[in-house]
Specification:
disordered N terminus, single chain, 506 residues, binds protoporphyrin IX containing FE
Length: 506
């Protein structure tokens, strides 16, 4: 054993010297070529993990701290992956407007990829022809103004249903967060699938699904540590949820195909009341030229609505109510506006919302302070680009800290203060043109469902505060409401929002 060991060492030694020389020369060459490039400032990094340890449990906050030290464009290293962090309105404008096409792709991340049939959905699919087509199908057939309008009865019924449930609580404590979550799930279910699926099993599946989308997979950043994802059970759970969701969506598709046959048999084919699955199946049937709408693509598109549309919407309403409870002056002013416009009618309907300028300002203020997707959805550069004087290589992951931008003191007076008045008498909007306020992102990958989301938010909020006085339960009254947060896919309240609702009209 030992002789052969010596023999191996003696033969390996010159090879070792040669390899070392080659490596040192290569390092030197690449470092000289790097210095000719002007990289954005970077914090000091550790071997192997780079800056991963600096992300913490609330990455939007840790990244804001890095920005304060290094400036609005910071290049960090997450394992092997270079990540550009943008935290000012100017930087966001450069990325989402000036160089929008270069930053319009998404990085491939293992968890969303497994859950969405290999990123066949809209939100996670790479920039290209496939993404263009699925996005335009969703925009045209589900999210256009006409379509959003056609689902008005669904939103109103579900919102009024929630108001009734609260009414039946007879002044006892209700978990408002849970009710708001059911509200958005039910609306998306009815619009996308034609009916609600409220069973414990489906709710549990949705919770696990959104939890996974917000989970961190180390294998995405340090490939050889992928075993950690296997060992922790993350990979197995992702596959399990993907399979259970697939079985559920298969049964929904079957239900629709059979229902369609019955309608056809009656000769009663009727456009009104069509849900998204009906529309996609029709398009698939008519699609003789190309096969963009394969079965997996239909299922992935539906999944996207749950991933992108439920938690984001309900968490925004939950934070708004939390802030209103903390700010009785704002609550009173809002209730007065709604009451004056409602003229004693039993419920607020969507026609009333347009006139409620203070309500709109309250919601904007919440989206500024509690940006539901604080880091938007990561982008990836597809070619080398010069950004604000810095060289950014192709394949760099890009994080836009919309949460920090919304609290940037150079753009917002008293940025930490909840003050809806700042949105009165000015034109700042969330439609992606004012880069200091981008809760829905901007540019070609910006959220395509702004109108859909806002109307759900406004209707729920208006009815909740019109019908009830909302207060903390007796045992916590007088204490500050807990506003601590927890970050997963979205920015959530850490503790449930428990309230007591006292009806106004008794
Ligand atoms: C308050 C509620 C919502 C917020 C704050 C929100 C925010 C966002 C953000 C920040 C993005 C990424 C934008 C970017 O990369 O620039 C996004 C993308 C997306 N959102 Fe929303 N969203 C909301 C509700 C919804 C709803 C209700 C739906 C669907 C019914 C939806 C569907 C989508 C889709 C499909 C994408 C992916 C777009 C793409 O990659 O091309 N969102 N959303």
């Amino acid at each position: 054993m030992f002789p052969s060991f010596h023999l191996t060492l003696s033969t390996l030694f010159p090879a070792f010297i040669l390899i070392s020389l080659f490596f040192i020369t290569f390092k030197w060459l690449s470092s000289t070529s790097n210095t000719s490039k002007n990289r954005p400032p970077s914090p000091r990094k550790l071997p192997i993990i780079g800056n991963l340890h600096q992300l913490g449990l609330n990455p939007h906050r840790s990244l804001q701290t890095l920005t304060k030290k290094h400036g609005p464009l910071v290049l960090i290293q997450l394992g092997n992956v270079p990540v550009l962090v943008a935290s000012s309105a100017e930087a966001a404008c450069e990325i989402l407007k000036t160089h929008d096409a270069i930053f319009a792709s998404r990085p491939k991340l293992s968890i969303p990829d497994t859950l969405t049939y290999g990123s066949m959905d809209i939100a996670f699919s790479p920039y290209g022809e496939y993404w263009r087509q699925v996005r335009s199908i969703a925009v045209l057939h589900l999210l256009s103004s006409k379509r959003v309008q056609s689902f008005r009865h669904v939103r109103e019924q579900e919102t009024f249903g929630m108001i009734d449930i609260i009414g039946n609580s007879c002044g006892s404590v209700v978990d408002l967060g849970e009710l708001l979550n059911s509200l958005t799930n039910n609306i998306i279910c009815r619009v996308a699938l034609g009916r609600t699926y409220e069973g414990v099993k489906f709710n549990d599946l949705l919770v696990r699904f959104t939890y996974l989308l917000g989970s961190f997979s180390i294998g995405n950043y340090i490939l050889w540590l992928s075993w950690v994802d296997r060992l922790s059970g993350l990979r197995a759970e992702t596959k399990k949820v993907a399979q259970e969701f697939d079985e559920f969506l298969e049964s929904v598709l079957e239900e629709h195909v059979n229902k369609k046959r019955m309608v056809d048999d009656d000769g009663n084919g009727n456009d009104k009341g069509q849900d998204l699955v009906d529309i996609l199946l029709d398009l698939q049937r008519d699609d003789t030229t190309n096969s963009i709408l394969r079965r997996d693509a239909i299922k992935a598109a539906i999944m996207d609505l749950f991933a992108a549309g439920t938690d984001t919407t309900s968490t925004a309403i939950e934070w708004t109510i939390s802030e209103l409870i903390r700010h009785p002056r704002v609550m009173k002013k809002l209730q007065k506006e709604i009451k004056d416009i409602a003229h004693g009618k039993p419920m607020i309907t969507e026609d009333d919302l347009e006139k409620m300028t203070y309500l709109q300002a309250v919601l904007k203020e919440t989206l500024r302070l509690y940006t539901p997707l604080p880091l938007l959805i990561s982008r990836e550069s597809t070619q080398h680009v010069n950004l604000m004087g810095y060289d950014i290589s192709a394949g760099t992951q890009v994080i836009i800290n919309a949460w920090a931008i919304g609290r940037d003191p150079s753009r917002w007076e008293e940025p930490e203060k909840f003050s809806p008045e700042r949105f009165l008498n000015n034109s700042i909007d969330y439609k992606g043109l004012d880069f200091e306020f981008i809760p829905f992102g901007a540019g070609r990958r910006g959220c395509p469902a702004i109108q859909f989301a806002i109307v759900i938010n406004e209707l729920a909020l208006a009815n909740l505060v019109y019908k009830y006085d909302l207060a903390l339960p007796k045992e916590v009254r007088g204490e500050e409401i807990d506003m601590s947060e927890i970050t997963g896919l979205t920015l959530h309240r850490k503790s449930p929002l428990l309230v007591v609702a006292t009806p106004h009209f008794e």
